[in-house]
Structure formats: C-alpha cells, structure tokens
Design a protein that fits this description.
The chain contains two helices and ten strands. It is of the alpha+beta class. The radius of gyration is 41 Å and the shape is rod-shaped.
Length: about 190
C-alpha cells in the first residue's frame, strides 16, 4: 500500500461545481445539523432522571423497643432509603458474631407455631382454706395454680388436681397427667 497517496483535488472541485455535488454537500450539512439539534432537544426534553437518594440514618445506638401487644398495635419504624419512587426498608441491626440465618439447622430453628420444649414438673400439691393448689415448675419459673388456671405463659391449663397428680389441658386439646416429682419435656 502506498502511504504517500495524493488526493486529486481537481476531481473534487469539478464534482462540487455540479448541481448534484452541491445537493449532496448541502444535504450532508443539513443532516449533521439535524443530528446536533436532535441531541440537544433530547437532553433538555427527555433528560434521563438520576435517582435521587435519600438516606435515613439510624441512631448511633439502637434503642430497645417494647414488643407491641395485641391491643396496642404500634408500627415499629425502620430506617428507609428512597431511590426515585422506590422505597427500600432497612432492617434492624444484626449481631455480627451470630451465624447467618441461612446456615441455621432445623434443630436450632423452631418451625412456625412450634414452641420451644421446656421442662414441666409437679413439685407439690396442698390444700389451704379448702382450696387445692398445685406447685408446677415450667422452665425456670415456679407457678402456684388452682383448677382452671393457666400455668404462666405455657400452653397448659390445670383441669384437675388429684392427691398426687394434676391433669393438664394443652392448647391443642391433649390432656396430660403429671404425677408428683415427674418431669415432662414436651
């Protein structure tokens, strides 16, 4: 290939002198001008929106919030980030030393509706002023109950108090007989 190629300008001048050459040059200039004007209009009229990011920062120390009760359903406010019209909710702080939830095993994670199994035992039965009382230990707590009462926050309700046993009604309708000194984990 010859790098010292010379362009013959006489042929270009002759082409530009013709009517066809003038139309092509003017048409090319008009096309370039239309592209420039179209680009400017696109930028001003159809400007792509940049997402406006609003960051709501949580307090430096998380404040403990009481768990909402059934009667008082407070909404717990979590920090949010707004990106354009989409709002993303951030979640509560996580202990970095706990294993991630995705690695939890079935034994560690109770299934929904299943309660943690705590030991249940009948420690004592006595009568005071004609009323029979049962002393029942559930987990680490000791409750003194009579017939018809619930054992603390457990799923058990005392149905019958016998001489050396109590009959407990579970929330699922099962009746369990628990004898003095017996420990039940269910």
């Amino acid at each position: 290939m010859n790098l010292n190629m010379k362009i013959d300008t006489t042929k270009i001048k002759e082409f530009m002198a013709t009517k066809k050459g003038k139309i092509i040059v003017v048409g090319g200039l008009i096309l370039v001008a239309l592209f420039i004007i179209g680009g400017i209009l696109y930028i001003f009229l159809f400007k792509p929106t940049e997402p406006s990011i609003q960051v709501v920062t949580p307090p430096s120390q998380p404040q403990p919030t009481p768990a909402p009760s059934e009667e008082d359903e407070e909404e717990i406010l979590l920090p949010e980030i707004a990106i354009g019209e989409e709002v993303i909710t951030l979640y509560i702080f996580r202990n970095p030393f706990e294993p991630p939830a995705m690695y939890a095993t079935a034994e560690e994670t109770p299934t929904p509706g299943e309660e943690e199994a705590l030991p249940l035992s009948l420690d004592d039965i006595y009568t005071e002023d004609g009323v029979e009382y049962a002393v029942i230990r559930y987990g680490d707590n000791v409750y003194t109950v009579t017939e018809g009462e619930r054992v603390g926050d457990s799923p058990y309700q005392v149905q019958t108090i016998g001489t050396n046993y109590v009959d407990l009604l579970r929330g699922d309708g099962e009746v369990i007989r628990l004898y003095l000194g017996e420990v039940l984990v269910k």
